[in-house]
Amino acid sequence: MEQADKPTAREPAVLDLAGLASDPERGAGFAEAAHRILADLVAGGAALGWVEPPSRGEVADLIGAVGAAVRAGDGSLRAAYLGGRLVGLGYWLRYTRPTHRPHADLEKVAVAAAAHGHGIGRALTTALMDDARRAGIEVLTLDARGDNEGALHLYRSLGFTEYGRLPGFVAVGERRYDKVFQMVDFRAEGRQRAR
Question: What CA–CA distance (Å, rounded) separates 76 from 195?
């Protein structure tokens, strides 16, 4: 696994699981720092799959499961740091159904509210897409809540296209939001290079 190039003062250091493991301080505090980001974002209404902020245990279990998938070659985890502080994280997991194994789902990209607007989400998503290409993933999918325009715009700008929408599918209390499905087909890139 590779680590992103050295960051400038304004660019995040985007580490993979091996990069986290090679830094005992960051590795030891990662689950707790990830919990703070995720819980704060959900408490503020972010569309991350939880209605209530996740517990420390939930996030620790999630990080453990994603780490196990990464070590098995079935996922990628990236963590963005600015000035030694975790400011974002994201991961994709390979589909488990045997007929879907060539593909993966970008399940979560989360950036601390204080770091929004600084390219952290773009850096994380780009690194995760690069990891997917290197892993031989053919199609990378994702879904997002329909009102999450910032994320949807980011994904479109990186080459994702919408392939479906479930109207009013996401329930947050009495509110309903569309569930928007997007994908990027890396096979098309291979066909273009072959020409």
Answer: 30
